[in-house]
Amino acid sequence: MNFELDDNLLAMLALHHIAQAGRQAADGREGSSRITELTDDENKANSTSEATSELEKMFDLDEKSSCYMAKGRYEEAYGIVKKQYKLGPSINFAPVLTRYFVSLVHTDRFEKADKIRSELISALTSNNDLSSQDFVKHADNLRMKGSSMESILFYQIASDLLETETLSGDITETAQRCSLGTKLAVTNLLGTQGISKNAIKRFVISHMQKVNDHLSRIKSIPKALLCLVRAICYHHTEQCLLQAGDFKAQESVLLKGVEVLRDGLGSKAEKHELYGAFLNNLGNTYMKINRPRDAARVLNEAVASIKKANYDTELERADCLAKAERALLSAQAMI
Q1: With 0-12 CB in 10 A as exposed, 13-18 as middle and 19+ as buried, what is 219?
Q2: According to the UniProt record, where is the region Disordered (predicted)?
Q3: Residue 210: strand, helix, or coil
Q4: What is the pLDDT of residues 116-146, one digit of tens each?
Q5: pTM
Q6: Do 35-190 and 1-31+222-335 fall under one CATH topology?
Q7: CA angle 71, 74, 76 (to 5 degrees)
Q8: What is the maximum alpha-carbon separation in the chain?
Q9: Burial code of 55-68, b = ≥16 C-beta within 10 A, e = fewer?
Q10: Distance between first and last Cα of the chain
Q11: Contacts of 243 by beta carbon, 8 Å cutoff, 6+ apart
Q12: How far is it, in rounded angstroms, from Cα 72 to Cα 149?
């Protein structure tokens, strides 16, 4: 199947997500647009795919542990799904493994989660009718239903498969780009998860390292585009760290975000709305760790950047500017 993510498409997607990230960075909201896009022909093919239909049927369950997880009652969900797991493989064992993995992540049982993830991959990939694209489509459906952690799991499985799939006998640039698309989909979703600090450190940071390693293997991405994609990744990572309350780690990631934009865009960096968002978030982080002088310095830079940045509307600029100026006043009051 021809599933291609060319430079122009990747550029449009990167710019779209950066625009969303810049607008939403101040209050931590995340966009959830699809990263990977299919052609019309591929969408038609997928809608009639028997393999995908089978995969969806396997997970079409109204199950009590899922209801508990939807309400954030992960320990109770863990207790239920652990008993189901002990019953052993059955026709619906894959969704049991999926729910077990999610409950283990949310309750910080990481060693067991790694084992269950491996079991799930073995169970699913033993079906030769299922391709990486079937897993991407399933992950898309899970995301649209609001099952974010489950969709993250299946995007990662798809990405793992794509890195080993061959086209005409060789691992191609197309497969690498497709794999990158699934990794970016995970990146986009991770910022929406209220997972623990330990889970952030275990999964988010390692995921971002995989994305950066993967980017370095795709040789034809222009430098400016590469920096924008990396900046997206840093934005989502710092939002996860903010949720986890790990402000020192968030500071480090924000500084990397500023650096990568400067490196890739040069003098145009401060005219990009994400640049001002990074500085604004960095200023707020400095206030949280009692560094008001540093906060005032970077917030002054944020205000200057926001005033000259390219926004879709003046209303968006005014909103971002008002938030940065309020934060600056707070920092100055703390000195």
Answers
A1: exposed
A2: 24-55
A3: helix
A4: 988 888 888 776 677 777 888 888 888 787 7
A5: 0.65
A6: yes
A7: 100
A8: 64
A9: beebbeeebebbeb
A10: 60
A11: 28, 191, 193, 194, 195, 200
A12: 12
- Please name which of 206, 256, 214 lies closest in space to residue 232, comparing C-alpha atoms: 256
Token duo for residue 153: 């799991």
The DSSP letter of residue 267 is G
In this structure, the number of other CB atoms found within 10 A of the CB of residue 36 comes to 24
Residue type, 107: T
Tokens of 187: 């990146």
Of the ranges 30-34, 118-122, 194-198, 221-225, which one carries the lowest mean pLDDT score? 30-34
Instruction: Specify the residue for token string 């002054």.
Output: 300
Q: What are the structural domain ranges in the chain?
A: 1-31+222-335, 35-190
For the segment 237-262, what is each residue's pLDDT rounded down to a tens digit?
888 788 778 899 899 999 999 999 99
Query: For tokens 């205000």, what's the residue?
Result: 303
| Amino acid symbol at 263 | D
In sequence order, the β-bridge partners of residue 167 are 170
Please report which residue ranges of 107-204 form alpha helices under DSSP H. Answer: 110-125, 132-144, 148-162, 173-190, 197-199
Report helix, strand or coil for 60.
coil
In 5-73, alpha helices (H): 7-24, 40-47, 50-58, 64-70
Considering the four listed CATH numbers 2.30.29, 3.30.420, 3.30.450, 1.25.40, the one that applies to the domain covering 35-190 is 1.25.40
Q: Which CATH architecture has domain 1-31+222-335?
A: Alpha Horseshoe (1.25)
- The token duo for 287 is 């206030």
Q: Which two tokens stand for residue 130?
A: 């299922």
